[in-house]
Amino acid sequence: MPRMLDVSDEVRAEIGDEEADRLLAGDTAPGGYDCTSCRTPGDPEQERTSTVLFIGEETAVLAFAHATCLPSQVVQVTEEQLRGAVRSISGGQAAQEPAPQPAAQQNAPQQAVLGVTSGLVLIAGELHPALVVEPTAPVSRPGSYGSGDDFLPLLIEQGFMPLSELSAVPPVLHGWSVLLAVGQLHAVLQPGPDGGRPVAWWQAHQPLQVTDGWRAAANKHQQVLMFAAPVGSIGRQPREDLLREALDRAAAGGQLVGAALPLAGT
What we know:
Elements: E1 5-6, H1 9-15, H2 17-25, E2 33-34, E3 41-42, E4 49-55, E5 60-66, E6 73-76, H3 79-89, E7 106-107, E8 113-123, E9 126-135, H4 151-158, E10 161-162, E11 177-181, E12 184-190, E13 199-209, H5 212-221, E14 223-228, H6 240-252, E15 257-262
Parallel strand pairs: 1-4, 4-6, 9-14
Antiparallel strand pairs: 2-3, 4-5, 7-8, 8-9, 10-15, 11-12, 12-13, 14-15
C-alpha cells in the first residue's frame, strides 16, 4: 500500500530529490511513528503524514507528524534543542509536568527578561491554549534611552490587539506562529526580515513541557492565543483560574494585548 507522505518543496530542497523520492516510495519512511507534535502514534499507510526536518547548527533530524497536526516544513532550532528533540523522539525525555509552569526566560532585544507561562483559557465556553508573556522590567524601544515602558506599543505596532475583556478570541496575527514540536514548546516566531524564513521572537533555553490538555487544545484549534502585559500586571500565577483572574484585571485596566498565533506556521 502506498505511503501517504507529504514532502514539501522546502524539505525536498534540504534533503535532495533522491532522498525525497525514496521517502515517497516507502524505502526509508517509517512503518509507524509517534507524531512529533501530539506524540500519539501515526501510520503513513493509513493517514496523511508530514515530513518535518529539524535543522541545527551542525546536524539535522527528519521527523514525522500527522498532517492534521503540522504541515511538512523545515524548522530551524539550536543544536541544544535538536539534541533534546532526538532524546524525546527516542523516549529519553522526562514525563509531562502535571500543571502549566513558567517557561524558561531569555533576554529580548530590548534587554528585558521575558517570562512566559502556558495555560488553558476559557473563552465563550471553550478552552483555548494560551501563552502569557510578561517582562520582568520595563521594555524600552530599541535605540531609546528613556525610562518609559514601550512593551505594549511595540507589540501593537506588530499587529497585536489591545483587549479590554476576554469575551472573544482575538484575531489571527498572520506571519507569527508558535512552534510546538516533539510535544514541547520551543519558540514564538515572527516574520523574518524581507519576508524570509520566520525567526524567534522568544525562544526557550530548553524545550518546555506543556500539559496533555494544552497540547490537545493546540492541535484541535491549530493556533495558540498569546497575551502580553507590562511588568507587574500578571505575576507568576500557580493555577489557571488565578491566571485568568489576572488576565481579566489587566484587560480591564487597559494593560493587555493579544492575538491568535497559528501553530507552527511557516
